């Protein structure tokens, strides 16, 4: 009987978790409610919270390698005991309300960010974190309080979406010409792979792999096609639509020197200062995204951070898992420690996560490893700051970048100390204790509310 119950529970859990990734939001919501009910009925236990964090996970609103929706990521974050979690999608805030609502149901400390690309004029001659593209930088805002934006701010987001869509369509035309007879229709073949029309190059690669199988159903013919087009032996290609094949399609046709690649210039993306104005006005925290410290721009990281701080940057994002080899001390790990040390000295918030927009990336960094454990307290501190900012900005407009915060804490160190303390004390089920605070509120009064 016990084994039968275990088997039934496993089937129910697998079915409901799979439905969390449905493109139907009502289906996702109902599935989560069913899972929460299983917890409340003691059919399923959730672990105690750990000190692990992931503040950079893409969802299927841009691209997640495992197809995770915001609800699925929230559920898995709680099942794995994450202390704080944040979704970060390219060019959209489409998952924000869903993720925060799921976090509230699960009592998960949840935040939402956005990633895009910007042009940094002061580094126009230096590659930063977008390989082979001088002056272009991946860039983030973290801790957005809402996706309900005023028209001018919504206009900026709409422009990001339109620009991305047109860039994809132009790319498709060039790659179609090379891969003919395997050609894609953007609306019919690519957009159905996304829930809200925000396709990426990774969606396009998957669509090409699937279309090739449809056009060339014979295994030998398909292998010969990809071998010829990608200039590799068929045995290396993971045919018909595996990870290796998709990565090679992207590398060989869409990246630098590929038939579909066009070098971006100063007008291809918004300028850094424009993006930061949007992030600040929308209630987020402008955040530099650091790659690995090996580019010529990132070798001048302190100079770059000071340039970005002048236009509002208050945080640095790192992806620790790709910055070290377990059991080895190498240059990338040294660079990771260097950028964290510089950020700490400049009193910048440090946020960390694993992206999950490429197969094989971990759900959460191994923060107990010898290489990362000394940095884990810094990552946890940054996560609590972003979470506290998100809640206080949403409830009262008094977040980390607000005039209220600057007036009460003119230096970054004391400001971060306050928001860290608030983030530690806050609980997802009592966030509304901060509602109704006005600009006259004293920091002590804010903290006192969380003690009730």
What can you tell me about this protein's structure?
There is one protein chain. With 452 residues, the chain is α/β, with parallel strands linked by helices. The chain has three domains: 1-45, no CATH class; 46-149 and 282-449, Metal-dependent hydrolases (TIM Barrel); 159-253, no CATH class. It is 46% helix and 10% strand. The chain has 16 helices and seven strands. It has helices at residues 2-19, 25-40, 70-79, 96-106, 151-179, 186-190, 201-215, 219-230, 243-253, 272-281, 301-309, 331-345, 376-396, 403-408, 412-425, 443-449, and strands at residues 53-57, 84-90, 109-119, 136-142, 285-289, 315-318, 349-352. A seven-stranded mixed sheet has the order 1-2-3-4-5-6-7. Strand 1, helix 3 and strand 2 (84-90) form a beta-alpha-beta unit. The chain is globular and about 70 Å long. The chain starts with a helix and ends with a helix. The mean pLDDT is 95.
Counting helices, strands and paired strands, the structural category is alpha/beta
Task: Determine and state the CATH class of the largest domain.
Answer: Alpha Beta
CATH architecture of the largest domain: Alpha-Beta Barrel
Q: Number of folding domains?
A: 3
Oligomer: single chain
CATH fold node name of the largest domain: TIM Barrel
Supply Rg. 23 Å
What's the β-strand tally?
7
Biggest sheet, open or closed, and with what strands and sense?
Answer: 7 strands, mixed
Distance N to C terminus: 45 Å
Number of helices: 16
What's this entry about, in short?
This protein is an alpha/beta fold and 452 residues long. It contains 16 helices and seven strands. The protein has a seven-stranded mixed β-sheet.
């Amino acid at each position: 009987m016990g084994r039968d119950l275990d088997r039934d529970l496993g089937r129910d859990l697998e079915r409901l978790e799979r439905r969390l990734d449905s493109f139907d939001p009502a289906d996702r919501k109902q599935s989560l409610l069913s899972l929460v009910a299983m917890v409340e009925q003691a059919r399923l236990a959730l672990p105690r919270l750990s000190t692990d964090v992931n503040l950079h996970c893409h969802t299927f609103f841009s691209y997640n390698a495992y197809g995770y929706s915001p609800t699925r990521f929230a559920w898995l974050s709680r099942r794995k005991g994450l202390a704080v979690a944040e979704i970060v999608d390219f060019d959209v805030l489409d998952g924000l309300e869903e993720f925060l609502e799921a976090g509230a149901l699960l009592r998960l400390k949840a935040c939402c960010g956005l990633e895009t690309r910007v042009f940094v004029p002061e580094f126009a001659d230096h590659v930063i974190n977008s390989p082979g593209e001088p002056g272009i930088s991946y860039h983030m805002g973290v801790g957005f309080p809402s996706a309900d934006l005023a028209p001018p701010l919504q206009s900026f987001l709409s422009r990001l979406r339109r620009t991305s869509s047109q860039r994809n369509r132009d790319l498709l035309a060039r790659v179609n010409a090379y891969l003919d007879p395997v050609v894609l229709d953007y609306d019919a073949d690519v957009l159905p792979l996304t829930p809200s029309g925000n396709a990426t190059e990774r969606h396009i690669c998957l669509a090409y792999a699937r279309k090739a199988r449809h056009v060339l159903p014979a295994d030998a013919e398909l292998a010969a096609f990809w071998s010829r087009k990608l200039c590799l032996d068929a045995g290396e290609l993971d045919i018909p639509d595996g990870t290796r094949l998709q990565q090679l399609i992207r590398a060989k046709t869409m990246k630098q020197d590929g038939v579909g690649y066009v070098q971006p210039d100063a007008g291809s993306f918004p300028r850094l200062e424009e993006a930061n104005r949007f992030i600040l006005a929308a209630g987020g925290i402008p955040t530099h995204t650091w790659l690995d410290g090996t580019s010529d721009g990132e070798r001048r990281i302190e100079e770059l951070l000071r340039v970005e701080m002048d236009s509002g940057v208050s945080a640095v994002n790192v992806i620790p898992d790709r910055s070290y080899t377990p059991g080895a001390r190498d240059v990338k790990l040294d660079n990771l420690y260097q950028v964290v040390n510089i950020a700490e000295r400049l009193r910048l918030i440090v946020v960390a996560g694993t992206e999950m927009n490429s197969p094989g990336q971990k759900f959460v960094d191994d923060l107990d490893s010898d290489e990362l454990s000394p940095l884990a307290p810094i990552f946890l501190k940054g996560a609590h700051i972003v979470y506290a900012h998100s809640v206080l900005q949403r409830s009262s407009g008094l977040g980390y970048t607000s005039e209220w915060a600057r007036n009460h804490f003119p230096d970054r160190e004391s400001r971060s100390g306050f928001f860290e303390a608030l983030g530690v004390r806050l609980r997802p089920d009592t966030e509304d204790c901060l509602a109704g605070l006005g600009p006259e509120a004293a920091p002590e009064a804010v903290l006192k509310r969380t003690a009730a």
